[in-house]
Amino acid sequence: MKIKSMIAALAASAIAITALAVPAFAEKKVTNGNDGDQMTYNVNQDDAKWGQIKGIKFTITPADGWTKTGFGAGVAYQGKDIKWTDYEINISGEGVADPEKNEVSFEKTGDNTFAFTLDTDEPWFKDIVDADKTWAQVIIQNWWGAEIAVDNVEFIYAEAPAETTTEAPATTTAADTTAAPTTTTTAAKSATKTDSTKTGDAGVGIVVAAMGLAAAAAFASRKKH
């Protein structure tokens, strides 16, 4: 039997229980919810990432005799402006889930132990993270059949929203590719020197030839007289 109305009335006065999987929870018995016995996690007080919770994993051990009776349980969440939302667990004495009623996936991990996983798409409390005087709870109850002991609890978190950062555009100064004008001084060939040398040799030849002719003429002239 679900006890939504009773839980809603108890929400404001629920006793805070420390968060995930601490030794104090070991062998914690959760009897029928109609007796007011349940496990209540005040996540906004105990979990820094409570706004990202979107699921829960927990292991239970049903009491002796469960193979004759089976057991029914449930996991639920509620909070400020968050309505009571529950997911039902129905396990037969053969350790088989009722396909029409069971809403939480599970694995039988031992002769008397079960591991349950509830993973939803959206964080349960994301809309009230910043609310004033807020409260948020995750609850495990036993509804019928054998009593259960909750052995371990672990929450499943959505990824934190990525922080948006604006980077200043990089300023790149292109290197100046304009080359400075290159001044090239090419030594002029010493044409003048070469030419003058050539002209000098020819001149000497002419002078020598002239001198020879003059001497010959003078010799001939002396000979005639």
List keywords for this structure.
disordered C terminus; 4 helices; single chain; 22% helix; alpha+beta; Jelly Rolls; four-stranded antiparallel beta sheet; disordered N terminus; 31% strand; 225 residues
What's the arrangement of secondary structure elements?
Layout: H1 4-10, E1 28-30, E2 39-42, H2 43-46, E3 53-62, H3 66-69, E4 71-79, E5 82-91, E6 105-110, E7 113-119, E8 136-145, E9 148-157, H4 191-224
Antiparallel strand pairs: 1-9, 2-8, 3-7, 3-9, 4-5, 4-8, 6-7
Protein model, in words:
- The chain has 225 residues and is α+β, with helices and mostly antiparallel strands.
- The chain has two domains: 154 residues, Jelly Rolls (Sandwich); 36 residues.
- The chain is built from four helices and nine strands, in the order αββαβαββββββα.
- The protein has a five-stranded antiparallel β-sheet with strand order 1-9-3-7-6, with no helix packed on it. The protein has a four-stranded antiparallel β-sheet with strand order 2-8-4-5.
- The protein is elongated and about 70 Å long.
- The chain starts with a helix and ends with a helix.
- The N terminus and C terminus are likely disordered.
> Main β-sheet, in a few words?
5 strands, antiparallel
What is the domain tally? 2
Task: Give the strand content.
Answer: 25-35%
Query: Poorly predicted ranges (pLDDT <50, ≥5 residues)?
Result: 1-28, 183-225
Shape: elongated
Give the proportion of residues in helices: 10-25%
pLDDT average, as an integer? 72
Rg (C-alpha, Å): 53 Å
Which secondary-structure class do the elements indicate? alpha+beta
The number of helical elements comes to 4
β-strand number: 9
